């Protein structure tokens, strides 16, 4: 679909579970499906220059420039938890 609509080569890559070294969880699959669905909706509406993201537990689309300008917040507490349980 992407190749036909935009005329560029597109390939699917699943990084999440590959980076962790395990299989995707049900949550990984659901979120990936929701984000992919949102991206296709945007393409169908000829809306470009958007980033699909999760904010407050909801799938949203943001202007790509606004997304790039957002401050990067590092969650120290989440990092400590991940290190403690060795994710």
UniProtKB/TrEMBL annotation:
Keywords: Allosteric enzyme, Kinase, Magnesium, Metal-binding, Transferase. Pfam families: PFK. GO terms for cellular component: 6-phosphofructokinase complex. PANTHER family: ATP-DEPENDENT 6-PHOSPHOFRUCTOKINASE (PTHR13697:SF4), PHOSPHOFRUCTOKINASE (PTHR13697). This is 6-phosphofructokinase. Residues 2-43 form the Phosphofructokinase domain. SUPFAM superfamilies: Phosphofructokinase (SSF53784). GO terms for molecular function: 6-phosphofructokinase activity; AMP binding; ATP binding; fructose-6-phosphate binding; identical protein binding; metal ion binding; monosaccharide binding. One of its GO terms (biological process) is fructose 6-phosphate metabolic process. InterPro entries: Phosphofructokinase_CS, Phosphofructokinase_dom, PKF_sf.
